[in-house]
Amino acid sequence: VIIAGNFKSFKSRKGTAEYLKELNSLVSDSSQEVIVFPPATALDNYDGKVNVGIQNGYPAENGAFTGEITLDQIREFDIDTILLGHSERREILGESNELVKEKFDFYKDHNFNTLLCIGETLELRERGFDEVKSFLLSQLEGIDLSYEKLVIAYEPIWAIGTGVTPTNDQIEETLKVISEVSKKPVLYGGSVKLNNIEEILALDSCSGVLVGGASLDSDTFGEMVKTADRLS
Ligand code: 13P
User: Fold this and answer.
1) Is the pLDDT of residue 220 over 90?
2) Residue 165 and residue 191: Cα distance in Å, rounded?
3) Is a pLDDT exceeding 90 seen at residue 232?
4) Checking CA distances to 142, which of 67, 102, 105, 136 falls within 20 to 30 Å?
5) Ligand 1 centroid to residue 76 C-alpha, Å
């Protein structure tokens, strides 16, 4: 399965290097696909089992896009995995479905592994599952759902950083709807911790997890990977 960690805007370059050294030694024998997304300033050519991806990228090779990071800078570090459409980018930075799709198309054309995040607000969840379903499908509109290197991460916004997770039935019901439109792996993200990863990974439609806070400690994240190893 895929065990991915999103550092968001935590950790320095030095902290990331130390972390990867520790995590790589903890998970070197793992049969899971382990990915971490450090801040862009911490990218480097890291060796080891853990695949390092980027949290975002502008859809251009290079150009006049002040403050953005484009393909040329990403390629310098042999990065071939990108996280797209994270809810924090959608909510805080105002990324629209159209921009996310533009990024997806661009990085797909350049053969990247793309982890596309989708997820609803609490307000929407409270309006019932039909609303959730049509919202999630709208976030996938125009996305090539058969792209070989696509992974979808379902992250309900109300479960991110809150310690609240949906019930296992809610997670399964939602991942199943996504699996019906795409045969690609679907991950769950939102307050995944060492104490709930096992039950989440056990869900039929779950191909892995995208972890925020709990991925910041290499021992904890290493244990999460080992939990997945024990289950497989
Ligand atoms: P938390 O695991 O901290 O809830 O974050 C989830 C997330 O947003 C991962 O991308």
Assistant:
1) yes
2) 6
3) no
4) 67
5) 27
Contacts of 77 (CB under 8 A, 6+ apart): 43, 44, 45, 52
Q: How far is CA 217 from the centre of its chain?
A: 17
Looking at 33, 88, 155, 172, which residue is catalytic?
A: 155
Strand partners, 34: 3
pLDDT digits (tens, 9 = 90+) for 106-120: 999 999 999 999 999
Cβ 85 under 6 angstroms from ligand 1: no
CB-ligand 1 contact for 216 (6 Å cutoff):
no
Our answer to whether residue 110 is catalytic in this structure is no
Token pair, residue 152, equals 């979808």
- For the chain, what percentages of helix, strand and coil (3-state, to nearest 5) are there? 40, 15, 45
Q: Is the CB of 43 under 6 A from ligand 1?
A: no
Is residue 155 annotated as a catalytic residue, yes or no? yes
| pTM listed for this prediction | 0.97
Average pLDDT, the chain: 98
pLDDT in tens, 79-97: 999 999 999 999 999 999 9
Q: Is the CB of 56 under 6 A from ligand 1?
A: no
Tokens representing residue 131 in the block: 């609303």
Residue 153 CA to ligand 1 centre (angstroms): 11
- Tell me the C-alpha distance between 34 and 52, whole Å: 9
Residue 179 in this model has a pLDDT that exceeds 90: yes
